[in-house]
Every structure is written in structure tokens, then in C-alpha cells.
């Protein structure tokens, strides 16, 4: 579902709020998005921009479920199915994203947000960057872009990931296309981490119909229903990138990163720019939700996995809870080790039984309190690959961060009497039978 179709469907459900007061993209809009609770919002009057800006597109699971045409409870199963069976792409000759073509590029004309006063510059945070690896083929992924000139950004490339590998192998400038306001299924697929060589756009196609069109200046295929496409190239010249407030709401360091030169902009008529708040719920959900199916697949390879939940306290990135149906005494430990393989940036994981809701922090803590023994059920792994988003990890410029990882097996001890670990519930009563007076608060 493209952005416009989604907004219409969301407004029919009463999910969309509109801001008619003129708002500045510099600091004001980010603060207002945060103050509004990151709800789905259309800014109708944006200083220096003739069209609208939309925020909160992917900020709720219900939004993603609506865009995919599924129930919210089946999102994980839907993502797992798409990950297992990507679909072919339908290439079209003409596309909405190429209704207008701008050759005289001026990135200052776009309402790129400055989120915090100490930011290194205005940042594109919702851009899905399309590349083609000379060995592994097409790739779609999110990369923050700091505007540094009328035609240029510095692009944050995480070392060892798909875009970085393609850039390192290119031997010269790497053609890229940055899609802003891509259909929601594309945004979700671009946040996933399939096996190398699997095109994320084909995963998007498995989630919902995804027509693609060839970029005007390269052979790259881009989502035809994107709002804005920036065509250009990643160079091997480097410049400062940062400061940037990242997923964990801490400031990332300033790095030397490649310049991205924009050579052409194509867009729909009256294009909608997409704002995505760094460190906010939409950022967390877009990064974390696609990790759930990869962890689920990895754990399912070693035991019976029934659910996975990334947690808000871990930024939907560093912490997860895995629910399993143990069939042997080592399944909890196997699940811990597999979860770290399923998401290499994962730092801490808790494994629970089927009777514990992995999305309920109190239930998970209860399982740790009643089923976990540190001398028996704790797994600690030293010097493991980590995430640059963890400020406590050991960070070496140009290298993968390193950390210690911890897993807690909070499943019932194998062979124990299950009744000893059951929650005993009170029998219900009919309150209508009782006369109750006073304020119990």
C-alpha cells in the first residue's frame, strides 16, 4: 500500500491528525512530532515546502498491519512467510515516482529536518537506499543522510552490512537511489536482514504488490509508488557525519563517511516528504520488528519457537524475549545461542515458556524471578560482535563494535513438577451481586 492509500485508509479509521499551522523543519517539527506522541500526523503547511510532510507512518504495529492487509496478531507470521518465500518483482514502464523530474538539484528545497540543536546538520532519516552489489545483486536498506551541500550528503554506512560491502567492492562511484515516502511494505522489507544476495524488494513483493521502475540514470529498480527518489552516487571521498541522536536516544560519534552526490530528483506531483523521528517509537519499531522474524527463524532451527518480542527498554534492538515450547533440557540454552545468531546486534535475551507473554515486561520479570537460577541458567559470551548503538560497547573506528552478551533461560527447570510453576488465579465473582460504596482509588 502506497503512502497516499494508507493515509486515506487511516483517516477513515480516525488515526490521522492534521496540523494546519505553519511549521519549520528546523527543530520545531521534530519537537512537535514528539509532543504529539508520534501519532500519525500530516503537516499541511511547512515553511519552504509547497506540499505536506507526514510523520508516524510506521509508528504503530496497527499501521503496518493495515498496510499489509493482515491482523496485527499475525504480523510476525506474515514477515516470516515473506522472508522464507520472496516474490518476483513487476517492472513497469511509467511510474508515479517519475511524474516530475528535477535536474537542477537543490537539496535545500526539501524539508529535511534538523532534530536537535547539536545535530551535525539536517538529516534524511526515512530514506530507503537502493544499490546493486557487483557480486550479490540488489540491496535495499535504511541509511541516514546528513545534508552538507546543495547536492550532497554524508551517508552513514555500517561496516560489513550490505551497502558498505557493495560500496567497498565498487572500485569507483556506486550508483544509488534514495526513496523517501516508499510504500509501507517496502519500508518494512528494507529494515529486514535477509541472507546475503536476497533482494529486500522481493520480500516487499511477498508482503504486498510492489511495482518497480528503472531509475532514469542507472539500471537500479526503485519502488514505483515512492513519493520522492534521489538518484545519485556514493563516492569514495569522505567527510564528517554526525553528531546524530540514534536509536537508544544517545549521541552517536562523528565519523568519516562517504559523500553521496545527488544528480537528479524525481517525484510525484505534490510529493509528501516523510519525517521519521530519531530515537522515537517509529525508529525503534522499524528497526526492531524486522528482527523478530530473523530471530524466530534462527531459534526455530534448534527448538520449537512460538513467539519473539523485541523490547522497548532495549530500544527494540539490543534486548529480546524468545518464547519456546521446550522439548528437551538444553532447549533454553540452544534458543539463547540461536537468538544471537538471528540478530548479531542483540545484547541480552530472555527465553520463556509458552505460558509467559513475551510482550509483558512484568510477566517476563516474574519468569526470571521464579524460574531462573544464575548458577544454572545464565549464559555469558565474551568479546562478541555488537552494535555501534550501544555506547557501553568497545568501539574502534572502522571495526565492528564488541561487547559481552547475556542470555537468561527463564523456562521451567526440565523435569520439574509444572504445578509448582503455575500462576494460581482467583475464581471470578459477579460484582453485580454486591452493593459497593465509596471511592476505592
Rg over alpha carbons: 23 Å
Count the DSSP helices. 12
The major pleated sheet works out as:
9 strands, antiparallel
* Termini gap: 45 Å
Percent strand: 25-35%
Estimated helix fraction: 10-25%
Task: Give the full name of the CATH homologous superfamily of the largest domain.
Answer: Electron Transport, Fmn-binding Protein, Chain A
Determine the structural class based on helices, strands and strand pairing. alpha+beta
How many domains in all? Answer: 2
Which oligomeric form is depicted?
single chain
Q: Please identify the top-level CATH class of the largest domain.
A: Mainly Beta
CATH architecture of the largest domain: Roll
- Shape by Cα distribution: globular
Please provide the count of β strands: 23
Mean pLDDT: 94
Under CATH, the topology of the largest domain can be stated as Pnp Oxidase, Chain A
Low-confidence stretches: none
Amino acid at each position: 500500500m502506497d503512502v497516499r492509500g494508507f493515509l486515506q485508509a487511516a483517516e477513515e479509521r480516525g488515526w490521522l491528525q492534521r496540523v494546519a499551522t505553519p511549521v519549520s523543519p528546523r527543530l520545531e517539527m521534530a519537537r512537535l512530532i514528539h509532543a504529539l506522541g508520534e501519532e500519525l500526523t500530516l503537516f499541511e503547511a511547512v515553511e519552504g515546502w509547497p506540499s505536506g510532510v507526514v510523520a508516524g507512518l510506521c509508528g504503530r504495529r496497527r499501521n503496518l498491519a493495515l498496510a499489509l492487509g493482515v491482523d496485527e496478531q499475525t504480523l510476525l507470521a506474515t514477515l516470516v512467510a515473506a522472508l522464507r518465500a520472496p516474490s518476483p518483482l513487476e517492472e513497469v514502464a511509467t511510474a508515479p515516482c517519475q511524474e516530475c523530474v528535477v535536474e537542477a538539484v537543490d537539496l535545500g528545497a526539501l524539508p529535511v529536518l534538523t532534530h536537535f540543536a547539536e545535530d551535525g546538520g539536517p538529516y534524511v532519516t526515512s530514506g530507503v537506499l537502493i544499490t546493486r552489489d557487483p557480486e550479490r545483486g540488489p540491496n535495499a536498506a535504511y541509511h541516514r543522510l546528513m545534508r552538507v551541500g546543495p547536492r550532497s550528503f554524508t551517508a552513514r554506512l555500517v561496516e560489513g552490512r550490505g551497502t558498505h560491502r557493495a560500496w567497498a567492492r565498487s572500485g569507483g562511484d556506486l550508483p544509488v537511489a534514495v526513496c523517501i515516502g516508499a510504500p509501507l511494505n517496502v519500508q518494512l522489507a528494507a529494515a529486514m536482514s535477509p541472507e546475503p544476495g536476497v533482494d529486500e524488494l522481493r520480500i516487499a513483493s511477498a508482503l504486498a504488490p510492489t511495482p518497480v521502475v528503472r531509475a532514469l540514470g542507472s539500471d537500479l529498480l526503485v519502488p514505483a509508488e515512492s513519493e520522492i527518489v534521489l538518484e545519485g552516487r556514493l563516492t569514495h571521498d569522505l567527510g564528517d557525519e554526525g553528531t546524530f541522536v540514534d536509536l537508544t536516544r544517545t549521541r552517536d560519534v562523528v565519523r568519516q563517511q562517504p559523500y553521496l552526490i545527488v544528480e537528479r530528483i524525481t517525484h510525484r506531483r505534490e510529493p509528501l516528504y516523510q519525517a521519521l523521528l530519531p530515537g522515537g517509537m517509529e525508529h525503534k519499531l522499524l528497526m526492531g520488528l524486522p528482527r523478530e522474524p530473523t530471530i524466530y527463524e534462527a531459534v526455530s532451527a534448534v527448538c520449537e519457537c512460538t513467539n519473539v518480542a523485541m523490547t522497548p527498554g532495549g530500544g527494540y534492538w539490543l534486548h529480546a524475549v524468545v518464547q519456546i515450547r521446550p522439548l528437551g533440557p538444553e532447549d533454553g540454552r540452544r534458543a539463547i545461542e540461536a537468538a544471537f545468531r538471528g540478530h548479531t546486534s542483540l545484547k541480552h535475551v530472555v527465553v520463556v515458556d509458552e505460558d509467559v507473554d513475551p510482550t509483558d515486561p512484568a510477566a517476563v520479570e516474574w519468569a526470571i524471578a521464579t524460574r531462573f537460577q544464575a548458577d544454572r541458567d545464565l549464559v555469558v559470551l565474551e568479546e562478541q560482535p555488537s552494535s555501534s548503538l550501544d555506547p557501553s560497547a568497545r568501539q574502534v573506528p572502522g571495526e565492528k563494535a564488541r561487547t559481552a552478551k547475556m542470555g537468561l533461560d527463564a523456562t521451567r527447570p526440565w523435569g520439574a513438577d509444572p504445578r509448582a510453576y503455575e500462576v494460581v488465579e482467583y475464581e471470578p465473582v459477579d460484582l453485580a451481586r454486591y452493593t459497593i460504596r465509596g471511592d476505592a482509588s
